[in-house]
Description:
Layout: E1 6-11, E2 14-15, E3 35-36, H1 37-49, E4 54-55, H2 57-62, E5 74-81, H3 84-96, E6 101-105, H4 118-126, E7 130-134, H5 147-165, E8 172-173, H6 181-190, E9 195-196, E10 215-216, H7 223-229, H8 235-256
Helix pairs in contact: 1-3, 5-6
Amino acid sequence: MTPPFALVLMYHQITPEGTPEGWVPSLLADPRYGVSLSAFSRQMAILREEGFPVLSLDDWIDGNIPADKERRPAVIVTFDDGYESDWRLAAPVLSRYSVPATFFVSTGFIGSAGMMTEEQLSRLARNPLFSVGAHGETHRFLTTLSDDACRLELVRSMSRIRILTGRETVDLSAPGGRISRQVTAMARESGFRAVLTSRPGILKPGDGIFNIPRLPVLKAHSSDDFVRLLDPCSWTFRTDRWIRTAKQGIRELALGLGIPERVRS
């Protein structure tokens, strides 16, 4: 039987142990999302040890979902922003455990301090285990932009990803997870295949692919927390989902009232 649903994990920067030679942190990184290399390695090991069906985003969208007699949820791994740690730290661990992943990149930051270069992105995209998607150009929240500015963000980021990867199909991770019907419509019109958000939840077969929910993996998550995050019946899963849904609702209300917010999430 196929998995009843998928859990899409959302990572950001992976942080090294200590300060290795050549390590440059990114000013874009939020420390809350900085999962240590040792924790990340353990999390990928857990996915394999516990027998979760680990799929690529392409697999799920194309319907290439293997049978699982235990009916465990499928797991899809994604990364946002485009940190150099994706290339230097995450990719080797993912390769070791044969875990596919999609890396969503804010194209305006490519090559800046702590972010991946064009060469690193191109090499990632050539690895059959990985894919590269767009995360906007400037990381501005698409819901706060004018229609023209939003379209420009979408078109420019998609164009650069296509050039770097040689791949026509491009998926979008909305910066800050901010999405609306209008932004979704513009993303579809611009040619994106799918849109991923930061809305917590599960992805069921037959669900639309222009509002894909994800679960953030945080620095504060222990290995036990990570295991519970993979269980929608657990308190960790439900609490995380409730808190993040409430925060998103407050942000959307603030935007509707014209209240400014931090340009980072």
